[in-house]
Write a structure and sequence with these properties.
Residues 39-103 have a biased composition (Basic and acidic residues). GO terms for molecular function: RNA binding; RNA methyltransferase activity. Residues 1-128 are annotated as: Disordered. The chain has 367 residues and is an alpha/beta fold. Helix content is 25%, strand content 15%. The protein contains ten helices and ten strands. It has a six-stranded parallel sheet, with helices on both faces. Strands 1-4-2-3 form a four-stranded mixed sheet. Helix 3 (158-169) links the parallel strand 2 and strand 3 (173-177). Helix 2 (133-141) runs parallel beside helix 3 and helix 6 runs parallel beside helix 10 (349-363). The protein is elongated, with a radius of gyration of 47 Å. The N and C termini lie far apart (152 Å). 25% of the residues are buried.
């Protein structure tokens, strides 16, 4: 019989049927007398749990259910998992007779508190603010007085490192702050902001020159730790009215000639020199070597009416509450006090300075 490919138009002959028992065929081997193989649709597990089939001799179970089942665990932590059947909340109106469930709105978030001021001091005003590297560099080169330089935390690049070095050479306070603080003051800060003084500072030698020009014994006012600009302005105003020759303030932990202090002085800074020094204790030693007596206002001192305040004198006034620092008290020649008859144990710094200054003028004969 020729092959079917060689006969065009002819189909492949049908395959002969396999012989069966009716044809006298009987299979040989174990299958001859063994049980018949069960059909695959009987829903029995393929791998029986009572007969292991793996090398570790552990029973295995066929997974015939969905991937996520409610009827038993499937994961290594032996925790049941739920099948994800879509959103649980019913969409659309609720069924009749059932009230609509409304989720209460989330509670309102409380307003964010304002950031604390720098180092616990009163925040500096935004007047006379210099933002950006070039304005600050030019102000330092021109010799303009800078109260404080704020620098963002992090590594300093070339120009910023140069500006910080120039500020430290001039003994300007350099403070590292977060960049968010600078963003609140100016959006174009370039990593640093400076606060310029509202008035130019003088030198201590200028005060001695003013006393010699008037032909009087020098009278100075030294402020230790006064951080309120209004108190500073009031003391400058009282000192100028009492005929003092100058006011001296420290560079750190004290307020400078800010716009608020200049306004509180009512123009007295135009006629009275104000100097700023690095170390008050060292300044007091220099004044004592030049023959100037240093008297500090202290509650444990002598009555100011019984103390001789004539001659070259420097009055030291401290902040309200803290008073004069311990080191400055130890370096002072005398301690004077104002008697108090009320229940409050201290006076305002500007009031105390005004009383002591006019007592000095009284003992000098009002000349």
């Amino acid at each position: 019989m020729p092959y079917y490919d060689d006969l065009p138009g002819r189909r492949k002959p049908p395959r002969p049927a396999s012989p069966g028992p009716e044809d006298g065929y009987r299979p040989r081997g174990k299958k001859a007398n063994g049980p018949a193989k069960p059909p695959r649709w009987d829903n029995k597990p393929r791998f029986s749990e009572d007969k292991p089939r793996f090398h570790d001799d552990k029973p295995r179970r066929r997974d015939d259910g969905p991937r996520f089942r409610d009827d038993g665990p499937r994961f290594h932590d032996d925790k049941p998992r739920l099948r994800d059947d879509g959103p649980r909340r019913r969409e659309g109106p609720p069924p009749p007779g059932r009230p609509e469930r409304r989720t209460p709105p989330p509670p309102a978030r409380p307003p964010r508190p304002a950031p604390p001021p720098f180092d616990g001091e009163a925040p500096l005003p935004r007047e006379n603010l210099l933002a950006g590297r070039n304005p600050i560099r030019e102000a330092l080169k021109s010799g303009r007085d800078i109260e404080r330089l704020l620098v963002a935390r992090g590594d300093l690049s070339g120009s910023a490192r140069e500006i910080v070095a120039m500020a430290r050479e001039r003994h300007i306070v350099v403070q590292r702050v977060d960049r968010a603080r600078l963003d609140e003051l100016s959006p174009t800060h370039q990593g640093m902001i400076a606060f310029a003084s509202a008035f130019r500072y003088a030198q201590v030698e200028d005060m001695f020159a003013l006393a010699r020009a008037r032909g009087e014994d020098v009278l100075l006012v030294i402020l230790d730790g006064v951080t309120d600009p209004h108190n500073l302005g009031a003391i400058i105003r009282s000192a100028e009215c009492a005929g003092a020759h100058g006011v001296i303030i420290p560079e750190r932990r004290a307020v400078g000639l800010t716009p608020a202090a200049v306004r509180a002085s009512a123009g007295a800074v135009e006629h009275l020199p104000v100097a700023r020094v690095t170390n008050l204790a060292r300044l007091m030693e220099t004044l004592q070597q030049q023959g100037v007596w240093v008297a500090a206002a202290d509650m444990q001192g002598e009555n100011y009416l019984e103390v001789d305040l004539t001659g070259p004198l420097a009055l030291v006034v401290g902040a309200e509450g803290e008073g004069v620092s311990r080191l400055v008290l130890e370096r002072s020649d005398r301690r004077i006090a104002l008697p108090l008859a009320g229940k409050i144990d201290s006076l305002n710094a500007s009031v105390a300075a005004g009383i002591l200054l006019y007592e000095v003028r009284r003992q000098r004969g009002w000349r």
